[in-house]
Amino acid sequence: MPHISDPESIFDPAWENEQAAAESAVRDVEESFGTIHPLIIGGDRIITDRTITSLNPSNPEEIVGELCTADAEHADLAVKKAAEAFTEWRTVSPGQRATDILAIANTLRSRWPELSAGLMLEAGMSWNDAVDETADAIDRIERTGLMLLRLTEAGPEVPCSGEVEEHGLLPRGPGLMVCASSSPLADMAGMMAACIGSGNTVIIIPPSTFPVATAYFVKFVHEAGLSPGIVNLCPVADAEMGDRLMEHKGIRYIAVCGDRESAERACTHAARPTKGSRGFKRVIADIAGSTTVIVDRSADLELAAGGIVSSAFMFQGQASTSCARLIVAADVREKLVGLIVGLTTELAIGPTREAANDIGPVMSEDVLNRAIMAIETGREEGRLVIGGSRIERTGWFIEPTVFVDLPQKSTLVREGVSGPVLSIVDAKDAAEAIALANEINTGTCVVYARDRARIGSAKRELDAPVIVINRPWAEAWSDAAIKRCIMELTVTRTIEEEQ
Asked: Are residue 73 and residue 199 in the same domain, yes or no?
């Protein structure tokens, strides 16, 4: 059963209450295995003939649940209901929308055990990772509500002789939120809050890796008292139906959570205005990109090793913050690798139901197969120092794997791996490490160094949009990111009045 390692959890200060809630939630979710979950459109729950089957990655013989999928008629209905809800939701004051968003966060806080248990059993997260993910989702929703209060109020009048000028933000309209398979719950929660907080309505296509947990999430959103049609759940069984929704004339924007491939697909369809649409659709993409770690020769190697192992293998290397590659100064590489291997051997791997296990399975058989293919590439391009095999047991388990002696042009180094595979490449000095990091399409660069001059060079010369110094990962949903997202989901309006 799950075990909570931090008694100072934000959810409940009483250790005993948390433990009991956790165990009860896991039992409840297990008892609900096999349930058919409906579409949620305009507040109505619709059962369809075609479903997506979600399996427990620790034991694929267990069906976590069946999620109904939409046909063309349901897709049109979802857009219609979202458009109807938009006519009223857009007139609600920013203050009231923020209040509604904070109510959603409070409801999720009261239902955290079910959400966490769902993520553990459906996505293969360890219990603590699932609790952290749920806490992050709640935090992003709350912070978005607070940011909304500061952004969406009408701007001050601009004095001008004989003229008054006002500024404000207008919502775009009904939109589609596409959650890629690699998209975690927190990304989806933050994007949803930004969409509806901006006065828009949204239709959610859930990720294939935890569709049932997403269904519970949307259910809890409605429990908070949100009006029907503002948030709709519309899973699709194939890419063709997803494309149809993206090109629908009633969709005004497409919000993407997850991978670059999904964003590129959205951009392609958004640029194809259909008859009756209002031109090109806006695409808002929350893509963290892969993480590159640089370890300088001046770094605290024990600190770096701990952060690297946590980042590379937390949630089996599938998180948006996971370390995809490590660039290390050649003269400290051997010692650093020894520390990494030592920490990796201490990780316990097995079903996430068992509290003693640090690492569970990867999310899907597809992720497993891709990781195995990447490992074969690593064997050809570099030297394996630990791991490298699928674990022969029920479920999609794979050993945490580390490769060294990889060339800088290595496929693993350039592309990264979704899975517990760490690729290590040497750099002769700090300048070469920075140059290599800049060649790679990376969203976040983590730098471990104690030399202030080296840190200064990294800040000046690295091209990554997010740079983190001496800790494993960045805060993904910063105030700047929330503000940027809300601004992209709205249209600036200016009113000029002659007096």
From this structure: yes
Residue 163 — pLDDT band, cuts 50, 70, 90?
low
Q: How many CB atoms lie within 10 A of CB 496?
A: 10
With CA atoms as reference, report the closest residue to 221 among 120, 55, 372, 103: 103
The residue among 393, 413, 316 whose CA lies nearest residue 359 is 316
Higher-confidence position of 183 and 68 = 68
Residues 229 and 348 in one domain: no
- Do 220 and 333 lie in one domain? The reply is no
Name the residue among 313, 247, 246 with its Cα closest to residue 274.
247
User: Is 301 in the same domain as 212?
Assistant: no
For the beta carbon of residue 207, count every other beta carbon within 10 angstroms. 25
Q: What is the mean pLDDT of residues 298-302?
A: 97
Q: What type of residue is 324? A: A
Which residues have a Cβ under 8 Å from the Cβ of 17 and sit 6 or more positions away? none
What are 320's two structure tokens?
């948006």
Identity of the residue numbered 92: V
Contact 231, 192 (CB under 8 A): yes
Q: Which burial class, exposed, middle or buried, applies to 242 when counting CB atoms under 10 A from its CB (0-12, 13-18, 19+)?
A: buried
224 & 333 share domain: no
Per DSSP (E only), the strands in 287-400 are: 290-295, 323-329, 383-386
Range of the domain at 369: 290-469
Helix (H) or strand (E) holding 54: strand 51-56
177 strand-pairing partners: 204, 255
- Residue with the two structure tokens 């989806």: 188
Mode of pairing for the β-strands spanning 44-46 and 51-56: unpaired
Q: Tokens 């046909």 sit at which residue? A: 71
What digits encode the pLDDT tens for the residues 465-494? Answer: 889 999 987 766 677 788 888 888 888 777
Residue linked to tokens 């907080």 = 197
Q: Please provide the DSSP assignment of 138-169 as one string.
A: HHHHHHHHHHHHHHSSPPPPEEETTEEEEEEE
- Distance (Å, rounded) from C-alpha 100 to C-alpha 486? 16
At residue 164 the predicted structure's pLDDT band, cuts being 50, 70 and 90, is low
Q: Is residue 5 part of a domain?
A: no
Identify whether residues 271 and 416 lie together within a single domain. no
> 376 CB contacts (<8 Å, ≥6 apart)?
none
Task: Please answer whether residues 289 and 444 qualify as being in contact, where contact means their C-beta atoms are separated by less than 8 angstroms.
Answer: yes
In angstroms, the CA 399 to CA 424 distance is 17
Q: What is the pLDDT of residues 282-291, one digit of tens each?
A: 888 876 667 8
Q: Give the distance from CA 224 to its chain's centroid.
A: 22
Number of structural domains in the chain: 2
